[in-house]
Amino acid sequence: MKHTYEILGLEDNKDRAKIFDSLSALTGVLSVEISFSSPIVVIEMHHHISEDAMNKALSAVGDYSMKMIPSGDNSGHQDHSNHTDTMMETNDHNQHKGHGSNDHGGHHAAHGEMGHDHHRMMIADFRKRFWVALGLTIPILLLSPMIQRFLGVDWQFQGDGYLLFALSSIVYFYGGRPFLTGFYEEIKNKAPGMMTLIAMAISVAYFYSVATVFGLPGEDFFWELATLIVIMLLGHWIEMKSVLGASKALELLVSMMPSEAHKMVGDKVVDVKLEELLSGDTILIKPGEKVPADGLIVEGSSYLNESMLTGESKPAKKEVHDQVIGGSINGNGSLKVKVEHTGKDSYLNKVITMVQEAQKTKSKMQNLSDRAAKWLTYIALAAGVATLVIWLALGKDFVFALERMVTVMVISCPHALGLAVPLVVAISTAVSAQNGLLIRNRTAFEESRKISVLVFDKTGTLTKGDFGVTRYERLNSDLDKNEMLRLAGALEQSSEHPIAVGIVEKIESLDIVIPKAENFQAITGKGVEAIVEGKDIKVVSPGYLRDENIEIPEGAYSSAAETVVFVLIEKELAGYIALADEIRPESAAAIRTFKENNIKVFMATGDNEVVGKAVSDELGLDGYYAEVLPHQKVEIVKKLQEQGEYVAMTGDGVNDAPALAQADVGIAVGSGTDVAAETADIILVNSNPKDIASLILFGKATYNKMIQNLVWATGYNAFAIPLAMGALYSIGFVLSPAVGAVFMSLSTIIVAINAQLLKRKMAKKSV
Fold first, then answer.
1. Side-chain half-sphere exposure of 496, counting CA atoms within 13 A
2. Which positions of the chain have pLDDT values less than 50?
3. What is the CA radius of gyration of the chain?
4. 247 Cβ partners below 8 Å, 6+ apart?
5. Which of 206, 258, 586, 621 sits a CA distance of 20 to 30 A from 154?
6. Of 47, 48, 101, 40, which Cα lies nearest the Cα of 73?
7. What is residue 212's predicted lDDT score, i.e. its pLDDT?
8. How many Cβ atoms sit within 10 Å of the Cβ of residue 554?
9. pLDDT value of position 239
10. Using the 8-state DSSP alphabet, how is residue 313 labeled?
11. Are 100 and 192 in contact (CB under 8 A)?
């Protein structure tokens, strides 16, 4: 929703930037637009924000306050909850008319609360007009002489023509008003399109029929006018319901934020409106509640469900110092969180903004469909006029020639063509966001099907990005290997060294209680030593064993990428623990998917040659580049492009910016709240190679759906226009305007249903 306010006390421009920042920081604010010629601000928000909350934010800037301007007082105000019927007819229906112009994609891309309110009102309006028109069409059909002859009845009576005229006039002016209004706007903008065709068809039918009622020789076809309008209203109604369904995924994101938060004020908990939260506040999140803002855990631990935000179905364990994302759902533990991001800086708002921008941005495919729809409009108008002239020249009566012209104009409406790409885009971008793929560049997303080479950064993408225990073995048959690990953990639990952290995390994952260590000592450069439960325990490096002439056991090293430490109990070698920057379990499956799709996979890493080769060999990569700095990766991408490859580069979006910009498709990997990779075309919320496989498969599915819809829409018109002109008249086949309207609406519905099937296809590919 959007509201317009007057900023009281603002007389010059000196504090406008500060006011912009203070309002933008409010939770729930999507955008802020401040006029430089007047003290007016337009605020778009995904839930209502009180004036008190905004005035509180302004008080930090200066002696300013705000007052809402009613919708009638400012043309810039767009509070869609207060639309009148007239406003909706003159504004909303005109926006809907863009099927043959460049308006269509933008119209269907406004998927915030404002866009949905707007769209639902349009659906309700078309539904009401449809039922009214349908109710009047029944008596119109029964009163029409042609229908009576078909039924073999004679229900004519004196004045029935005038009654037919009255009923049809209501259908024309009330049911046909959206099309007539759209026609006016198209002509005013010098961009004739679908609404022009519909308006001309129903107007020609109506005024010709009126003329027959008042004396012009010929037979009316009010019934064809009425059925045409009814079918067109039904087609629009079904289409708009499909569009609304396509965007519900994003609407779920918008609705994920709670309306209130439990703010800590000293030792007290105070419930406050979400928009009143500020960065630095501490909030309490109770079990089962939604997280109201991005932040850092300062107390407590819990498992959080982030599936709607990141696509990761498994709940994520969160502890002190871990980040939480606004909109995720808390598990069984209570958390205290220090707020870091609110308003436009929050993760959820960034996701919403990115998806909306992606849906509004036109790609090559959509530009193609727009041009095709525009030219089809001109062709249909020319074909309609030509049809009238040709049939008159062939000696047919005016009614027949006029009916052929009306049928051509109706059946050739580029409605399906205008819907072909935008609806697919709305679905694909929203579903991708649910699966952890944020699309910033739609063209790059569509062209991901061309990727022939993938260049991966290693750490955090193919690997987990931290040391983890890969193996641990005992060397004494009388000692359980978990017992050996437990004793070693006593020495490591207080250390922040990556090896120690990896060992402790492994022990905790096994629910093993770590004992206390006494007389802790560091063995310089070689390890640590302590007394645990009365036993002398050492965790040492291979160098310590060599110095003490202890033979390194066979099988201790299975991979050059591993780091191995050894455990001694009472000076006897008891076992060893191997650690590595563990390869993600999803990596191998992702690599197989790439190779099945004939995509070569390379790795570029700053690690040494030994580690690079070990990871490459284990995953079966096509090659690797070791000991490369981030800025050197751009040369790797260039070299591959010079070899004719279509290259996708994955990186962290900051250090790898040059390579991401150079690549044909730049894919930034990030986790949590890090989604602001400006140089990337696509952002992966999870640093997971499986998501890149999903990206490529989604891109292919999206492109194929667009092609299918374009082929159907253009092929249908190429076949239907000659048929409507009367190409098969010689064999007795004549297409009426009403049947033409059925075929046209059917074409639109088929395109809409086909686009909806993309949801199911993408859902299967993400499994």
1. 0
2. 71-116, 245-247, 249-250, 311, 313, 358-359, 654, 671-677, 767
3. 34
4. 108, 111, 115, 116, 119, 426, 430
5. 206
6. 40
7. 81
8. 6
9. 56
10. -
11. yes
Exposed, middle or buried by CB within 10 Å (0-12, 13-18, 19+), for 736? buried
For residues 492 and 522, the answer to whether their CB atoms sit within 8 Å is no
Q: DSSP assignment of 695-712, as one string?
A: HHHHHHHHHHHHHHHHHH
Convert 9-39 to b/e letters by CB count within 10 Å (16 or more is b).
ebeeeebbeebeebbbbbbbbbebebeeeeb
CA–CA dist 759, 430 (Å, integer) = 10
Residues 135-157: tens digit of each pLDDT? 999 999 888 877 777 788 888 88
DSSP three-state, residue 111: coil
What are the residue numbers of the active site?
457
Rounded CA-CA distance 537/530 in Å is 6
The rounded Cα 521 to chain-centroid distance in angstroms is 54
Residue 661, φ and ψ in degrees, nearest 5 = -70, -35
427 contacts 756 by C-beta, under 8 angstroms: yes
* Placement of tokens 């004992």 in the chain: 515
Only one residue has tokens 């310590």, namely 544
Task: Supply the pLDDT for residue 712.
Answer: 79
Is the model's pTM score more than 0.70?
Answer: no
Return d(Cα 381, Cα 507) in angstroms, integer: 76
Q: In what order do the strands lie in the sheet with 682-684?
A: 437-439, 682-684, 665-669, 647-651, 453-457, 600-604, 623-625
Identity at 74, one-letter amino acid code: N
CA separation for the pair 742, 411 (Å, rounded): 8
pLDDT at position 644 is 93
Query: Could you tell me the CA-to-CA distances from 77 to 3, 6, 70, 256, 627 in Å, in that order?
Result: 6, 12, 8, 26, 56
State the burial class of residue 478 (Cβ atoms within 10 Å of its Cβ: 0-12, 13-18, 19+).
Answer: exposed
